[in-house]
TrEMBL record:
Organism: Nocardiopsis ansamitocini
Name of this chain's protein: Flavin-dependent reductase
BP-aspect Gene Ontology terms: pyrimidine nucleobase catabolic process
Record keywords: Oxidoreductase
Family matches, as Pfam families: Flavin_Reduct (PF01613)
Length: 176
């Protein structure tokens, strides 16, 4: 565990819906889709997340959650910095590739380059945030990862965002 990792004891509150019912209930909440990438010992690592959110403006902090069962987390947690890519609605295939177990996520057709510190930067999307890891905390069966944004880039003429809702990817249409 790194110096920024924190493990909280269980709350002891075991009441509430069973796991399947809880998951079914949460499927009704749409979420934005991001891909988190990092460099670990010269190798690119990345995953898809739908738990991304802003935390603070001063300092600029963002967060996402990773399941303890993630096969990517043991490597990703070693990174001191990472990039968060907010995806556009045309990037559902990319989101699915980075969510798949055992996939070579950085192989073609994924288009990417290395940024400062070797961080893999994906082409496309709507926004890219480069972050220094600020804090990591185990909460329930997920790791909360908080990053301090050190650089942000909003792509010119960004597409509508990619959303995840009821087990499927989709787009967003504003109401008139």
């Amino acid at each position: 565990m790194s110096k920024t990792d924190t493990v909280s004891p269980p709350s002891g509150n075991q009441q509430g819906p069973d796991t399947a019912r809880f998951r079914a209930a949460l499927r009704h909440h749409p979420a934005g889709v991001v891909i988190v990438t990092a460099d670990v010992a010269g190798e690119p690592v990345g995953l898809t997340a739908t738990s991304f959110t802003s935390v603070s403006l001063t300092p600029p902090l963002v967060s996402f959650y990773v399941a303890t069962s993630s096969t990517t987390w043991p490597r990703l947690r070693l990174a001191d910095s990472f990039a968060v890519h907010l995806l556009g609605e045309e990037q559902a295939d990319l989101a699915a590739r980075f969510a798949a177990k055992g996939a070579d996520r950085f192989a073609p057709p994924t288009r990417w380059t290395r940024g400062a510190g070797g961080i893999p930067l994906l082409d496309g999307g709507t926004v890219r945030l480069v972050c220094a890891r600020h804090e990591t905390r185990l909460i329930g069966d997920h790791w909360l990862v908080v990053g301090e944004v050190t650089h942000s880039q909003v792509h010119a003429d960004p597409p509508p965002p990619l959303l995840y809702h009821q087990g499927a990817f989709g787009g967003f249409t504003a109401l008139p």
